[in-house]
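User: Structure tokens for both sequences below?

Assistant:
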Amino acid sequence: MDDNLDRDAADLWSTLFEIVTDGEKRLAKHFEAHRLTPPQFYVLKTLSENAGECRIGDIARDHHLTSATMTGLVKRLEAMDPPLVRRRRNQSDGRSVDVILTEAGEDRFVAVQRGLMDQLRAVFGLLPDAERRDIIAKVRQYFAVFSQQFPLERL
């Protein structure tokens, strides 16, 4: 056994776990400040990434939720004042429901994104350009190797 490898793996695991748990807490507080839950934000994000419109079943599938759970999330977003989304029957398949991002929903999504990016820029701005690029390269390298060695399909 390689003691250094074991120590380094444990150290990386501990650091990554701390980053993820801290990030989840910070994101939840940030979403709360914008009167959103994390799942509601991810619905807005999905809609924004799909030109502001998506079938409710597709959103549910993307987030590993049931259609009933997603319907409840969408109803709450639709009931906000002003509504962040609206629903309509899919024109090509009357059994499906499309979710459409409203202007207020897009504005809320952009405000959340802007706030998160402002925080990241503030921290990254403390580092020299070369260090920032090195951090990004190392994280990408780690993620690429990890994803290749342990694809989600095998988990």
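Moving on to the next sequence.
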Amino acid sequence: MINAAKMLLGLMCLGGTLVLAGQWYLETEPQREPSRVAFVNYCASCHGPDGFATHLLSQAHTAQNADALTSRIKLQHADLIAHAQLPEPMIKALALYVIEQRQGLPSIADSHNHVIPTGVIESQHHDFEVELVTRVGKGPYSIAPLPDGRILLVEKVRGLSVVSNSGKRGDLVEGTPRVWSEIAQVRGSFAVLGSMLDVQLHPDYTNNGWIYLSHSDRCQLDCGSPWPVTMVRVVRGRLKGNRWIDNEVIWSVHKDKYTVVPDAVASGRLAFDHQDFVYVTVGGKSTYDNLHVMDTPYGKIHRFRDDGSVPEDNPFWQGKKVRDPASSRNTVWSFGHRTAQGLTTDPRTGDIWATEMGPRGGDEINLIQRGGNYGWPLFTEGLDYNGEYITIGEDLGLDFEYSQTIPPFIDFTPAPSLSNFVFHNGDQFPKWQHDLLVGSLRAQTLFRIRIEQGKTVEKERLLTKLGRIRDVEMGHDGSVYVLIEHKESGSLLRLVPSA
């Protein structure tokens, strides 16, 4: 008995030590990041700790992007590079580090802090204020403003609810697909298998009442797995009081395609074009070689009709006699995506646009084209987190030319962790009309981007240090709504013109 008690005590001590060690490793990871270590070792003696002693972090510095600063470092510090034997990618990593410091990019853990600004915010075309509509629960992911002023709210680990006109958050809607509690929380983010994702109204909602939900459907023993596995699925239904009725599965994949990869990369963003086709994003919820295999759903944007039927003009469609019954190729619209955390429609043209998270650097805004290859993981502007070039595509044997891919419409390097976005389409801020309002997670920034004749002509940070922005949507009254997440909760905000 004594030996057993000692063994149990020893195991408890070992477990506690491992937990503390893991916590220390995650908390100190930013200090051990390779480019920061290189800066401290080779640059701080002249530029000061983290560069604050000189003009290096000034936005007025002549090198304003990573490529330009990389070239400047090579030109001005050739002897140091040779002495330190810095490899080529580490020079770019140093440039990324400096620009990240200029932009005040926080660590992932610190990005869960939030500050809701008070008073008037000045911007290039409009001054505005930020109003708190309501506090929300943990894991907020998406919103859909209703024509009557209420707002549908999705919290990943709680489900669907309705926020009233007065800002009161109602009880969870009954009868929606099941969601599951988080398995763990890592640096403020939830690891979940079985969560609710996006919510979108049918374009003719006022007449048909259809609401579309994406969620990560979960199964285990019922699909032959010894552990829980999930995959993105799309359903539609209607609200009757506070109940979800008329539920229909609109898009799903074979259970063989469900994976144990957590839902953080599931994506599941929804959008409609002008012909009422539905689009849904699926992240890299598998190994990256599957992103270019048409029979798998991962790393792709899928297209289908609003009733779930599949149009035969999809680029990789095959008839039943040819197609593998477990294949999801018939709905593939574009491929080679890493994690498309944003999807929106240009209200003028019906074009579909997506944001995409890259690795360190390499976030993108893309105009989605039929059958387009968006290049990941063979081509990216980003670096690996260890400060080396991305070689995943080469290691997997992917072989296609850059000319065969669709390049980013807008590249964000360093990466702010782009999330969802929307085209401004309202009367309250008329000088923002048709501009993109783009959210970000790590950068905690709301961007405004103006595109004219296929080029970016304006790019402005409307709000910074706001919090991790999960969704940006237009209200039917022209209001701009922003959904942010905190460590254990979130906030629904509204932008209003200043007096």
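User: Anything stand out in the second?

Assistant: Helices lie at 2-27, 34-42, 44-47, 66-76, 78-84, 88-102, 205-208, 392-395.
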